[in-house]
Design a protein that fits this description.
Length: 208
């Protein structure tokens, strides 16, 4: 089902379940915050990764798969800037971009999660261990990626996204996970990416 959605392009993608703190200072996004906090608003926007260009000023090239973000807390500062916290909800695909006036906006098709396949349970369990191990290694290197002791949902659909959000990966890898055609493909990709990240972290630790 297609619908209109205001969009906030960023240098990194947002995945479902991920928390997104924002400091909003551009005039166009200040106006977006006014829209999101208005009475009767759905308080949601889309977040897409900027593939080429800058977060400030427009003229960027954007990914076509993003995440709907729900506003959960916001405050308007005395000088008109905003601080806000969003949480990623579910994916969408951009069908067409509209004019960036007054801010980026698009017609999108929302993409619901598939039902959980119990056959993926062992892979999910193994990924939990792998992601926690990778985070532990990253912590030893002093990287600010969050510790390995995070709580994981007992709902496997949610837990799968939480592992994608927590894994110590770069923006392009995370966008690849977001764009995967199926959950099984996503879990297989996450397994490969975390293995690669773990090997690199271990190498860096040996040479430290």
């Amino acid at each position: 089902m297609s619908r209109y959605l205001p969009v906030f392009p960023l240098g990194s993608p947002l995945v479902p379940t991920q928390i997104l703190p924002l400091h909003v200072f551009e005039d166009r996004y200040r106006l977006l915050m006014e829209t999101l906090t208005a009475f009767g608003s759905s308080a949601e926007m889309g977040v897409v990764m900027i593939e080429r260009g800058s977060e400030v000023g427009g003229g960027d090239q954007r990914a076509t798969v993003g995440t709907v973000a729900h506003l959960i807390e916001s405050e308007r500062l005395g000088d008109g800037r905003w601080v806000a916290i969003f949480v990623g909800s579910h994916r969408f695909s951009v069908e067409r971009w509209l004019d960036d006036d007054p801010y980026p906006q698009a017609i999108v098709e929302e993409r619901a999660d598939e039902d959980w396949d119990p056959a993926d349970g062992p892979l999910l369990d193994a990924l939990e261990l792998s992601v926690r191990h990778a985070l532990s290694l990253a912590g030893e290197l002093g990287e600010q990626v969050g510790g390995p002791g995070f709580p994981l949902s007992d709902q496997p659909v949610v837990a799968a996204w939480e592992l994608c959000a927590r894994a110590p990966l770069g923006p392009l890898d995370r966008q690849g996970l977001l764009s995967a055609p199926s959950r099984h493909d996503r879990l297989l990709l996450l397994d490969r990416l975390v293995r690669d990240a773990t090997a690199l972290l271990a190498f860096r630790l040996e040479g430290r």
